[in-house]
Amino acid sequence: MNDEFAFIRSLLKGRSAWSDRIEVDIGDDAAVVVPAPERSLVMTCDTMVETVHFLRQTMSCRDIGWKLLTSNLSDIAAMGGTPTFALLSIAVPFSWQTEEIQEIYRGLYQCADENRVTLVGGDTVSTPGPLTLSLTLLGEVSPGNALRRSSAKPGDVVFVTGTVGDSAAGLYLLLHHPQLKEDFPTLVKAHTRPAAQVSIGKWLAESGFNPACDDISDGIAGEAWEIAEASGVKLVIEQEKLPLTAACKEVAKMAEMDPYEWAWFGGEDYQLIGTIRPDGWQQLRQAALEENILITAIGRVEAGEPCVEKETAGKRMSLQQKGYNHFADR
Ligand code: ADP
Ligand code: MG
Q1: Is the minimum distance from the CB of 29 to ligand 1 under 6 angstroms?
Q2: Whose CA is nearest to atom 2 of ligand 1?
């Protein structure tokens, strides 16, 4: 046994296998799973880089592992898929202790267990650069039912799940007023322990209404633009209808910031934004109610040049497409 093997083995403590379709589990050269009959595969990956996506100052190791999986779950949810298997590639600098990496895995396993996801493999390297975690997540969906950004049609209702802006408000608190974090636990949790809307995504995919859907990773403005451009339609969103929490508004007031800016451009809410026919909206609202999930109609789809308009106090103006863009300064 060499050190690397012992290190990898130590990371696998606490891992659960949630599927009976695993033919060769973690520990061989590659994992082998039996595909589910009559299901299409959904595949995604997301990377987190220290200082770019998280700071040690604001995120505990467990939070990092949790959030890494959530960002991937959210992409699977936005396609209407059921998440299944994950692979995690890690590039570890010498400044990170083994115990800290183990803690990241513990956070990841917590989130994996809540979502019945099984880690079936990964890769481990050292790096002279920052800690880099790249997770690949598989999922499945009925053939032809995956949710697309391109399905929005004039007359559709625009909806959003949950509340928006809380993650940005939580980050603001952690960075600027960490002493107040006990006073706003829901905001801190929205930033450090977000949950993906997997069950609503699945409902949408199986609903038969062919809704458009996207997940809110970069801010509701950017995601609404993605739907508008992919579908060739105009989205009109009423700012006053955006579901903001009282806590988010309170922190914004204290910070002398506009809470709607956090909602439009903050990102990392991991909620779903979508569009659906009015009769589908009625059914969606009922289904969400039964699952105790907040869902809000925030606007409508119109024919026209692809764009997003924000309506506030009866006035309409076009909404900028900005959001977090890693290549903005190149
Ligand atoms: P190989 O040299 O054949 O690529 P490794 O020694 O890298 O094999 O990996 C051995 C086993 O451990 C494989 O099943 C691999 O998927 C798994 N593994 C390696 N690194 C990680 C990691 N960071 N997280 C989870 N599984 C890992
Ligand atoms: Mg390897």
Answers
A1: yes
A2: 29
Angle between helices 198-206 and 278-290 (to 10 degrees): 140
Residues of the chain with pLDDT under 70: 1-2, 323-330
How far apart CA 226 and CA 237 sit, in angstroms, is: 14
Is the pTM higher than 0.90? The answer reads yes
Residue 26 Cβ < 6 Å to ligand 1? yes
Read off the pLDDT of residues 201-260 as tens digits, 9 standing for 90 and up: 999 999 999 999 999 999 999 999 999 999 999 999 999 999 999 999 999 999 999 999
- What distance in Å separates the CA atoms of residue 205 and residue 118, rounded to the nearest whole number? 23
CA–CA distance, 156 with 28 (Å, rounded to integer): 49
C-alpha span between 92 and 81 (Å, rounded): 31
Helix (H) or strand (E) holding 284: helix 278-290
Q: What per-residue confidence (pLDDT) applies to 324?
A: 55
CA atoms within 13 A on the CB side of 84: 21
Residues forming beta bridges with residue 123, ordered by sequence position? 89
